[in-house]
Amino acid sequence: MKVDVLDQIRNDLELMKIELARKYNELDLFMNEEHPQFHLVKMEVAKSRNKQLVQLFGSGVGIHHAGMLRADRGLTERLFLMDFCTTTLAWGVNLPARTVVIKGTQLYDLKAGGWRDLGMLDVMQIFRRTGRPRFDKSGEGIIITSHDKLAYYLRLLTSQLPIESQFISSLKDNLNAEVTPHNVKEACAWLGYTYLFIRMKMNPLAYGIGWDEVYSS
To answer: Which residues does the UniProt record annotate as the domain Helicase C-terminal (predicted)?
Structure first.
C-alpha cells in the first residue's frame, strides 16, 4: 500500500512540473509533435490503461517506476526522450541520455520508516547513464540538493570521501546463499575477498571495531 501511495505521489509531482511549465509558457520545450511518427505513437499510448501515462504524454513527458505495468514501462523506454523516473531506471534499464538530472537527494526508506540521503553508489550509477553511444562525445550530470548537503556530495564526487561498504546489513543472507564456506575458518576466508573486509581494515571505527582489536589480530 505504501508503494502505491509513493507511486501516486511521483505521478502528481510530474503533473505539477507540467503545470509550472505551462504557467511560464515553456511547455513547448517538452513537446515533439513535429516528429513524423508522433500521431502513430499517440495512438499506441492511447491504448494504455495508465491514465497518468496518457495524460503526461500529451505534454511530452514520460514516467517510469516499479509501480507501473511492464508493458507501460516498456512503452516509456521505447519512446524515451525526456523522462522523470525513479532509481529503477538507472539500475535496471540500460537507457543512456545526453543529460541526467538528479532532482533531490532524499529517498524514503520503507524499512527505516523515514527519509535517507541518496547513496553515492546510486549517484554514480545514475550519472553513468550520461552520454549516448554514437550520438554524444560526452555527457552531463546534474545533481540538485540542499545547501547543507552540497559539500558532502562534492567531496564524494571528487573522491575526497571514501565509500563505505553496506554489505554488513545483508551479510547473513549472502553467507547462507554461498556454497563454499563449510565452517567458520572458510567463512572468514570468504569474507576476506569482499570490499567490506577492506574497509574494515581501513576504517574499523565505522563498523564498530576498535583499533586495539585490529592491532591484536
So the answer is: 47-134
User: What does the pLDDT look like over 85-132, one tens digit per residue?
Assistant: 666 666 666 677 778 888 888 888 887 788 888 887 788 888 877 877
CB 98 within 8 A of CB 130: yes
Tell me the three cell numbers of residue 179: 556454497
Which residues are CB-contacts of 9 (< 8 A; sequence separation ≥ 6)? Answer: none
Domains of the chain: 3-158 (3.40.50.300), 168-216 (no CATH)
Question: Taking a C-beta distance cutoff of 8 angstroms, is the pair 53, 64 a contact?
Answer: no
Q: Using CA atoms, how far apart are residues 164 and 136, in angstroms rounded to an integer?
A: 33
